[in-house]
């Protein structure tokens, strides 16, 4: 494994130069075009590229989007239900999707290519997003993104779309809570809503960590998402670019530690982590003993020689702050000893103090507007 990424430094020494990612891929991280921020009154299309949404929860989540000042319209197939196999009567005890693959892809493409729509919001995750990728007209999607790219927002299984849009279209995307998910709860977490508002409308987002597995500081574009989806995309035309020079964000849900280990080993052996600048770990709900996970992450990611910060409130937990994948980010990870040695922040410093033991910070684009 090659250690260190562009502008990354661990507490015990300087980084190595960025390394090679996937075969044939060399060089530093490319800068993605950042999506245009929304304004009150903008129309957003709520679609379901994965599992079907429950009608009541979808309506509750759309109501919250409207409370934010957005004109939320629901995609044609968001409430459809089909099983994984051949068409036929839907069995509730079989896994369900929000319509056939071509139907879900059509909702996504129609929304992205509609000039009246300023944002595409995914209703929920589940399973099925990888199956729509081959049904999309990527030339048409690229043409629609030739101006100011619109926002694509969602998380979990939607990681497949984040990766593909970043790879194929070169745009940033928004990883965060979804209308038929956490946003449908009676009283969504206030910090969750504040971060969502900042990500969609403009403003900096800071995600504090709970503990550093390896201290240091790193800068670079943010990549990653839900670990199981990143592993599932490896070797496909939709896989995210190698992490060289980038800060990697990872999270997942209901995965046993040995499965997490296997997926990390897969990505490490493929060379995807080579030259990464740093690693930010989100929530790992129902993934086993947190102490076992920390030991696993330290063993697998520590040899990269870059900062590793754990406990960020993003992913599948009760607090889901929003991340802009592809955007410039700064990761600071401090242990108690390194934090004590750091100088206090100047009152004239325009940037907020970094929470200890560290944080992942994404700044708003200049002007915070499209």
Automatic annotation (TrEMBL):
GO molecular function, one term: serine-type peptidase activity
Region ranges (Disordered): 1-30, 334-370
Active site: 156 (nucleophile), 251 (charge relay system), 316 (charge relay system)
Entry keyword set: Carboxypeptidase, Hydrolase, Protease, Serine protease
Superkingdom of this protein's organism: Bacteria
InterPro entries: Carboxypeptidase_A_C_sf, Class_I_gatase-like, LdcA_N, Peptidase_S66_N, Peptidase_S66C, S66_fam
Entry coiled-coil feature ranges: none
Hydrolase keyword on record: yes
Gene Ontology process terms (BP): proteolysis
Domain LD-carboxypeptidase N-terminal as annotated: residue spans: 44-175
LD-carboxypeptidase C-terminal domain boundaries: 219-330
CDD domains per the UniProt record, alphabetical: Peptidase_S66
Compositional bias (Low complexity): 1-20, 334-346
Family: Belongs to the peptidase S66 family.
Protein's name according to its UniProt entry: Muramoyltetrapeptide carboxypeptidase
Source species: Actinomadura meyerae
Taxonomic lineage: Bacteria, Bacillati, Actinomycetota, Actinomycetes, Streptosporangiales
